[in-house]
Design goal:
By secondary structure, the protein is α/β, with parallel strands linked by helices. The chain contains 7 helices and 14 strands. It has a domain of 159 residues. Helices cover 28% and strands 18% of the residues. It has a 7-stranded parallel beta sheet with strand order 1-4-5-6-7-8-9, covered by helices on one side. It has a 3-stranded antiparallel beta sheet with strand order 10-12-11, with no helix packed on it. The protein is globular.
Length: 291
């Protein structure tokens, strides 16, 4: 429900419905729950909560974006269901069929179908008439446990559904991840640190974890995109505001924390920025010209 998304790896976000159930540690600080449930009270989160379909205006947005993309000769990315999970099996099957129909009617758009439930992709996509040819599939992995479960499931789904490409969202990154040879079956890697959401305070994303995924992607020739550092920044990294030194944040235990040989300061999402070792990583996967 955004005209131009603030998320660095997409042009638009589109939410055909809202609501979800938490399934992993990455969900602990769910921004969608904090915003749409806790703050605005538009939907109740959880297994006994509800899923709320959005209105006609939102469902028509992709039609308008597609017209503009045709005019501009572009193929903008659209993150589908940023306030839900497109492969949530508690969603009425008809809603997903309707959403897939919209995707098929807007071939200039590239839909990013990110899920924490990659095991559901094949079954639910087939029930909705098959994965649209202009859709990419991705999964969230925050640590090694989730990587070992979700990446093989995503690779299997890729072989069956034949998406435009596959991708990993390692955000919030909560532990070290070694993708081993699995990375060669992935087309895009995104990393990001955690931010505060309501009463949930961000956990530290260790710089070594992010560097490792960056290096794995670069070594494998996979496009790499670093979305954000999060609330905490490792000393030695560069603040967005270069006039401010990390030393100025002091040694207050709420804002200063030594972890595994590194020192981190809680500087806030805006000040921590997107630079990783002084570099902004903005790579995107190549997309076929015909959708």
């Amino acid at each position: 429900m955004a005209e131009n998304s603030a998320i660095s790896w997409t042009r638009h976000t589109w939410n055909p419905w809202m609501g979800c159930t938490k399934v992993s540690p990455a969900c602990d600080g769910c921004y969608a729950e904090a915003l749409m449930d806790k703050r605005y009270g538009k939907v109740q989160w959880g297994p006994h909560g509800e899923r709320v379909r959005t209105g006609a205006h939102t469902w028509n947005d992709p039609i308008r974006w597609n017209r503009q993309a045709e005019k501009d000769g572009e193929r903008p990315f659209v993150f589908c269901a940023s306030l839900a999970d497109i492969f949530d099996n508690q969603v009425p099957a008809e809603w997903r069929r309707n959403a897939f129909d919209v995707m098929r009617r807007t071939p200039r758009l590239v839909y990013l179908l990110l899920t924490k439930r990659p095991q559901n992709i094949v079954k639910l996509a087939e029930a909705a008439g098959g994965l649209p040819t202009n859709a990419a599939i991705g999964t969230t992995i925050e640590d090694q446990k989730r990587a070992s479960i979700n990446v093989p499931a995503l690779i299997e789904a890729k072989a069956v559904t034949r998406p435009l490409f596959s991708f990993l969202s390692c955000e919030p990154l909560l532990g070290p991840i070694d993708l081993f040879q699995m990375i060669h079956a992935i087309d895009w890697v995104i990393t990001g640190g955690e931010t505060d959401q309501g009463g949930h305070k961000a956990r530290i994303t260790e710089i070594a974890w992010t560097r490792s995924l960056r290096d794995q992607a670069i070594h494998a020739g996979v496009p790499y995109h670093h979305k954000q550092n999060g609330e905490w920044l490792a000393w030695g990294q560069m603040l967005e505001d270069e006039s401010t030194n990390l030393l100025s944040f002091g040694r207050d235990p709420e804002r200063y924390r030594p972890v595994n040989g590194e020192i981190y300061s809680r500087v806030g999402k805006k000040r921590s920025g997107r630079l990783l070792d002084g570099v902004e990583h903005n790579e995107f996967p190549e997309v076929r010209s015909n959708g």
